[in-house]
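Morning run. Coffee first, then this:
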Amino acid sequence: MIPIRDTIRSQRFPVVNTLLIILNVVFFLFETWLRPAALDRLFYSLGLVPIGFWVGGPGRWLTLLTSMFLHGSWFHVISNMLALYIFGDNVEDRLGHGRYLLFYLLGGVLAGLAHLWAYPLSRLPTVGASGAIAAVLGAYMVLYPRARVITLIPVFFFVQVVDVPAIFYLGLWFLSQLFNGTLALAATTFQGGGVAWWAHIGGFVAGMVLVLLFAPRQRRRYYPDEFYPW
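And here it is:
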């Protein structure tokens, strides 16, 4: 399922979310200019390498942040930024600019720690904003469970556009991460490369919890597709 947009309009311009998208794209464009050897050095120095993290010095903690702004391919960065664009603006709208930035970075750090827990002996660098974005998705599900997500669903050679409840779309996404993450733990597949499932799982759960601490109280928000007979 490929999300296109949601049905919630932001009340103010998502300054932080837009800057995060720009930064991620700029860093990726910089990566495309590097030769393969230089790119490998960049990933191993600024990416999150579990076995290096546990035996490294104080500077290793910085890689929990720097790894969030690196991506491994065009598909990686485009898919991540699309999700951030669709869901991040509403979470920022609810939290406010400063709190959203802190929430995003903290969610990404906790996602990275979940990955370190799952694969403590991995020698592969992990890069990408997907852990922090997973935190955004978890927060979105808590804040806007009745929102709708306009989704593309490929059916053989056809593509169908479906209006999916956000709680269903994000809940299904999380269950798929949990299922694959459990299989990956059993098979230790990440030692040979793959998706950092537990960064996604940890980020999503962290987002659901952190948003309860970061979001200011406000009156219940009604959605235009709701119907009340009274």
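The longest strand covers residues 148-155. Good start to the day.
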